[in-house]
Amino acid sequence: MNSIRRSFGFLLAANCVAAVSQFTIVAIIVNLGSESMLGSFVFVMSVWAPAILMAGLRLRSVVTGDHLGQYQFSEYLGLQVSTVTVVFVLVMGLGYFLSGENSMSPVFLLIGLSKAIEIVIELVYGLFQRHGVVHLIAYSRAARAIASMLGLLLGMLIGGGLTWGCLGFFSGSLLVALAIDIPKARSVLAQATTNGAPSDRLFPRFPFNRLLRLLRSTLPLGITAILVSLTVNIPKYFVKNELGDSSLGFFGAALFVVAGATLVINAICNSFLPQLSASYKTGRIDDFRRLTAKFVGANGTLGIAGVVVSLAVGPFLFHSVLGFQDVDVFPSFVLVMSAGALAFVAHALQFILVATERYSAQVLPVVLDLVVTTILCWILIPRFAITGAAIAVLVGSAVRMLGFLTRVAPILASGSTPTHLMPGDRN
């Protein structure tokens, strides 16, 4: 537990910095631009997020849990570079085909590049976590959050528009990757030796058959990632279509607050993941159950705390800090934070499925969430505006949480680890 507390402390500090930076980005765009400009930023982010997450295949979690060394990091990196490149080209081509050369094209490109860097660096974080150097993740994440936020601020101050702001946002992320992530990753790999020689290097390798096998095993994670992202972003598409960019600016700001809290949840999840995976795969089922109880309980407690905070400071946050004067934010914000609380528990349950390598078991609950959220958005947003979107997200999150619970309960009830996951039984 000491290693979990130490990891959590590092990741919590960094993710709190990232959460504050995210909120500051919202404030910068609203105050230096407009609510509509924030709506445009949120919309472009919501287009890229599902595609890039699909390309990511949640390989960070797989790298972190690969204690038996099935694949070298260079092979993981080769798969990640391949999937991100393919998805980036496809989305850029589709965006150009649908919208042509309009004023948002530079913004679309720059945010896409930023998200691509972000997902590749997540893979590096998995390497850091597997080798027990979690403090490097913390330094990198905090530096990236601050650099991207300052880049956005400087860009908007100098250029006066969203395109310049996004150029600064991308430049900050790229600078941290070149100055911190790549050198530190090389150092970690150099210290991991086999028979006195470096066991791997920071350069993508592309052994086709092995990468194809890895892709097949992790594809359910990619499908789950894009479905989860779509459940978050589909309400934004409906809000933009029905209510316009200004309303999307508010709704996106509310979801940014939840996303900031999710960074703290991710600190908990990523701190517990190596121990969860190791205890399960080595047959220590009682330890696995105790860790699971603490893990899920911590996420649930933070979710409840978020709802309480939203009740206390919601109106002040949106009216006084962000300046949304024309929107009755209180009911919608509380509903969104309540949805976030359920999503935090679902997130914990999903990480348990990752730790036990139940990748395909994650798909159905997320599909149900996506279907329910989409149907409710179609029905409720035209009638109840932002409140309807918040209700749709809340109900969808409840469906996903219950779906994951039905998948995790049999694992906890079982008294043994499947033989194919035990050390020595892998090919």
Give an overview in words.
Helix content is 84%, strand content 1%. A hairpin with a 2-residue loop joins strand 1 (193-194) and strand 2 (197-198). It has helices at 2-32, 35-56, 59-65, 73-99, 105-130, 134-159, 162-191, 208-243, 245-281, 285-321, 329-355, 363-413; strands spanning 193-194, 197-198. The model is unreliable at 419-427 (pLDDT under 50). A two-stranded antiparallel ribbon has the order 1-2. It has one domain (2-421). It is mainly alpha-helical and 427 residues long.
Q: So how many helices?
A: 12
Overall pLDDT:
83
Order of strands side by side in the largest beta sheet?
Answer: 1-2
Q: In sequence order, what are the helices and strands, one letter per element?
A: HHHHHHHEEHHHHH
- Ranges where pLDDT stays below 50 over 5 or more residues in a row are 419-427
What is the number of E strands? Answer: 2
Measured distance between first and last alpha carbons: 31 Å
Shape: globular
Which structural class is indicated by helix and strand composition? mainly alpha
Largest sheet: number of strands, sense, barrel closure: 2 strands, antiparallel
How helical, in percent, are the residues?
over 70%
- Beta fraction of the residues? under 5%
**Computed CA radius of gyration, to the nearest angstrom:** 21 Å
Count of the domains: 1
In brief:
Helix content is 84%, strand content 1%. It is mainly alpha-helical.
Topology of this protein?
Layout: H1 2-32, H2 35-56, H3 59-65, H4 73-99, H5 105-130, H6 134-159, H7 162-191, E1 193-194, E2 197-198, H8 208-243, H9 245-281, H10 285-321, H11 329-355, H12 363-413
Antiparallel strand pairs: 1-2
